[in-house]
Design a protein that fits this description.
The protein is of the alpha+beta class and about 200 residues long. It has helices at about 15-25, 30-35, 40-50, 70-80, 95-105, 110, 115-135, 135-150, 180-190, and strands at about 55-60, 65-70, 115, 155-160, 165-170, 195-200.
Protein backbone atom coordinates (compact mmCIF):
# COMPACT_ATOMS: atom_id res chain seq x y z
CA UNK A 1 0.00 0.00 0.00
CA UNK A 2 1.51 3.38 -0.94
CA UNK A 3 2.43 5.60 2.00
CA UNK A 4 -0.04 8.39 2.59
CA UNK A 5 1.64 11.80 2.31
CA UNK A 6 -1.37 13.88 3.23
CA UNK A 7 -2.23 14.11 6.93
CA UNK A 8 -5.62 12.73 7.98
CA UNK A 9 -6.34 15.91 9.94
CA UNK A 10 -5.80 19.33 8.38
CA UNK A 11 -7.93 21.48 10.64
CA UNK A 12 -7.82 21.72 14.42
CA UNK A 13 -10.57 22.82 16.80
CA UNK A 14 -11.08 23.77 20.43
CA UNK A 15 -11.70 20.10 21.38
CA UNK A 16 -8.29 19.22 19.92
CA UNK A 17 -6.65 22.04 21.86
CA UNK A 18 -8.28 20.71 25.05
CA UNK A 19 -6.99 17.17 24.42
CA UNK A 20 -3.46 18.25 23.48
CA UNK A 21 -3.35 20.58 26.50
CA UNK A 22 -4.46 17.79 28.86
CA UNK A 23 -1.80 15.43 27.49
CA UNK A 24 0.80 18.18 27.64
CA UNK A 25 0.04 18.91 31.28
CA UNK A 26 -0.45 15.41 32.68
CA UNK A 27 1.75 13.08 30.61
CA UNK A 28 -0.81 10.32 30.00
CA UNK A 29 -4.61 10.41 29.72
CA UNK A 30 -7.19 7.67 29.41
CA UNK A 31 -9.69 7.15 26.61
CA UNK A 32 -12.55 8.61 28.66
CA UNK A 33 -10.51 11.76 29.27
CA UNK A 34 -10.19 12.28 25.50
CA UNK A 35 -13.95 11.79 25.15
CA UNK A 36 -14.43 14.45 27.84
CA UNK A 37 -12.44 16.83 25.62
CA UNK A 38 -14.99 16.18 22.86
CA UNK A 39 -12.91 13.86 20.66
CA UNK A 40 -14.73 11.10 18.77
CA UNK A 41 -13.22 7.66 18.16
CA UNK A 42 -12.40 8.47 14.55
CA UNK A 43 -10.63 11.67 15.60
CA UNK A 44 -8.47 9.81 18.13
CA UNK A 45 -7.60 7.20 15.47
CA UNK A 46 -6.60 9.89 12.98
CA UNK A 47 -4.47 11.72 15.55
CA UNK A 48 -2.66 8.42 16.05
CA UNK A 49 -2.37 7.79 12.30
CA UNK A 50 -0.87 11.26 11.88
CA UNK A 51 1.66 10.32 14.54
CA UNK A 52 0.63 12.87 17.21
CA UNK A 53 -0.87 10.50 19.81
CA UNK A 54 0.53 7.17 20.89
CA UNK A 55 -1.36 4.40 22.69
CA UNK A 56 0.39 3.00 25.76
CA UNK A 57 -0.45 -0.23 27.57
CA UNK A 58 0.17 -0.70 31.29
CA UNK A 59 -0.75 -3.08 34.08
CA UNK A 60 -2.96 -2.13 37.01
CA UNK A 61 -4.03 -4.68 39.64
CA UNK A 62 -3.33 -7.52 37.24
CA UNK A 63 -5.35 -5.97 34.40
CA UNK A 64 -3.93 -4.61 31.16
CA UNK A 65 -5.13 -1.03 30.65
CA UNK A 66 -4.48 1.51 27.93
CA UNK A 67 -3.91 5.23 27.82
CA UNK A 68 -2.47 7.85 25.46
CA UNK A 69 0.51 10.16 25.39
CA UNK A 70 1.85 12.78 22.98
CA UNK A 71 4.61 11.85 20.57
CA UNK A 72 7.47 14.22 19.75
CA UNK A 73 5.48 15.32 16.69
CA UNK A 74 2.40 15.89 18.90
CA UNK A 75 4.41 18.08 21.27
CA UNK A 76 5.80 20.08 18.34
CA UNK A 77 2.33 20.59 16.92
CA UNK A 78 0.98 21.66 20.33
CA UNK A 79 3.70 24.29 20.51
CA UNK A 80 3.15 25.50 16.92
CA UNK A 81 -0.65 25.74 17.16
CA UNK A 82 -1.24 26.76 20.76
CA UNK A 83 2.15 27.85 22.12
CA UNK A 84 2.21 25.02 24.67
CA UNK A 85 5.60 24.70 26.33
CA UNK A 86 7.06 23.52 29.65
CA UNK A 87 5.27 20.21 29.32
CA UNK A 88 4.91 17.67 32.09
CA UNK A 89 7.41 14.91 31.31
CA UNK A 90 5.44 11.70 30.93
CA UNK A 91 6.43 9.14 33.54
CA UNK A 92 4.70 5.94 34.53
CA UNK A 93 1.12 5.69 33.08
CA UNK A 94 -0.10 4.44 36.46
CA UNK A 95 1.22 7.64 38.08
CA UNK A 96 0.25 10.05 35.29
CA UNK A 97 -3.35 8.87 34.87
CA UNK A 98 -3.93 9.80 38.54
CA UNK A 99 -2.74 13.32 37.65
CA UNK A 100 -5.10 13.26 34.66
CA UNK A 101 -8.00 12.19 36.91
CA UNK A 102 -7.31 15.22 39.10
CA UNK A 103 -6.99 17.52 36.08
CA UNK A 104 -10.36 16.43 34.69
CA UNK A 105 -12.05 16.60 38.10
CA UNK A 106 -11.54 20.36 38.48
CA UNK A 107 -13.59 23.08 36.69
CA UNK A 108 -12.46 24.33 33.27
CA UNK A 109 -11.37 27.72 34.63
CA UNK A 110 -9.13 25.95 37.17
CA UNK A 111 -7.66 23.79 34.39
CA UNK A 112 -6.70 26.98 32.55
CA UNK A 113 -4.50 27.92 35.50
CA UNK A 114 -2.90 24.48 35.86
CA UNK A 115 0.87 24.68 36.35
CA UNK A 116 3.20 21.80 35.42
CA UNK A 117 6.22 20.60 37.37
CA UNK A 118 8.70 22.48 35.14
CA UNK A 119 6.64 25.69 35.44
CA UNK A 120 6.68 25.28 39.24
CA UNK A 121 10.49 25.07 39.04
CA UNK A 122 10.48 28.41 37.21
CA UNK A 123 8.28 29.93 39.92
CA UNK A 124 10.63 28.57 42.60
CA UNK A 125 13.61 30.24 40.87
CA UNK A 126 11.61 33.49 40.63
CA UNK A 127 10.97 33.23 44.37
CA UNK A 128 14.73 32.96 44.99
CA UNK A 129 15.26 36.09 42.85
CA UNK A 130 12.61 37.90 44.92
CA UNK A 131 14.42 36.97 48.13
CA UNK A 132 17.69 38.28 46.69
CA UNK A 133 16.02 41.52 45.62
CA UNK A 134 14.76 41.89 49.21
CA UNK A 135 18.36 41.59 50.41
CA UNK A 136 17.81 38.03 51.71
CA UNK A 137 20.79 36.57 49.85
CA UNK A 138 21.63 34.10 52.61
CA UNK A 139 18.09 32.67 52.72
CA UNK A 140 18.00 32.36 48.91
CA UNK A 141 21.34 30.55 48.95
CA UNK A 142 20.12 28.08 51.58
CA UNK A 143 17.04 27.19 49.47
CA UNK A 144 19.13 26.94 46.32
CA UNK A 145 21.56 24.63 48.08
CA UNK A 146 18.69 22.49 49.41
CA UNK A 147 17.27 22.21 45.88
CA UNK A 148 20.66 21.16 44.48
CA UNK A 149 20.92 18.46 47.15
CA UNK A 150 17.41 17.16 46.43
CA UNK A 151 16.04 18.46 49.74
CA UNK A 152 13.54 20.64 47.86
CA UNK A 153 11.54 18.98 45.13
CA UNK A 154 8.73 20.14 42.84
CA UNK A 155 5.24 18.60 43.13
CA UNK A 156 3.53 17.17 40.02
CA UNK A 157 1.27 20.20 39.52
CA UNK A 158 -0.32 23.27 41.05
CA UNK A 159 -3.92 24.30 40.43
CA UNK A 160 -6.13 27.10 41.74
CA UNK A 161 -9.22 25.97 43.66
CA UNK A 162 -12.63 27.71 43.76
CA UNK A 163 -11.43 29.95 46.64
CA UNK A 164 -8.48 31.18 44.60
CA UNK A 165 -5.96 29.16 46.66
CA UNK A 166 -2.98 27.63 44.88
CA UNK A 167 -2.91 23.92 45.66
CA UNK A 168 0.14 21.76 45.03
CA UNK A 169 -0.86 18.28 43.87
CA UNK A 170 1.39 15.24 44.20
CA UNK A 171 0.82 11.60 43.24
CA UNK A 172 2.58 9.46 45.83
CA UNK A 173 3.74 6.01 44.76
CA UNK A 174 4.96 3.23 47.03
CA UNK A 175 8.55 3.93 45.90
CA UNK A 176 8.50 7.26 47.75
CA UNK A 177 10.72 7.47 50.80
CA UNK A 178 10.24 9.88 53.70
CA UNK A 179 12.97 12.18 52.31
CA UNK A 180 11.18 12.60 48.97
CA UNK A 181 7.90 13.44 50.69
CA UNK A 182 9.72 15.91 52.97
CA UNK A 183 11.38 17.59 49.93
CA UNK A 184 7.95 18.22 48.35
CA UNK A 185 6.55 19.56 51.64
CA UNK A 186 9.48 21.98 52.01
CA UNK A 187 8.74 23.46 48.58
CA UNK A 188 5.01 23.72 49.40
CA UNK A 189 5.81 25.62 52.60
CA UNK A 190 8.25 27.98 50.87
CA UNK A 191 5.79 28.78 48.06
CA UNK A 192 2.82 29.06 50.41
CA UNK A 193 0.74 26.47 48.55
CA UNK A 194 -2.06 24.33 49.88
CA UNK A 195 -1.15 20.64 49.56
CA UNK A 196 -3.01 17.61 48.33
CA UNK A 197 -1.73 14.12 47.62
CA UNK A 198 -3.20 11.08 45.93
CA UNK A 199 -1.95 7.50 45.83
CA UNK A 200 -1.08 5.72 42.59
Amino acid sequence: MPRRNKPYITQYFERDRNAFTALFRTGHVRYEHLLQCGLADSRIKNLMRDGHFEKVFYKQTGEIKECYKLTKSGRTLAYQLWGLDKQYHAQNPLHDTVIADKYFSIPLESRDQWVTESQIRDKFLERLDELRNQGKEEEARIYEDMHNKGLISMPDAVYVDENGTEIAFEVVTNTYGQEEIQAKETLVKLMNYGYETSKA
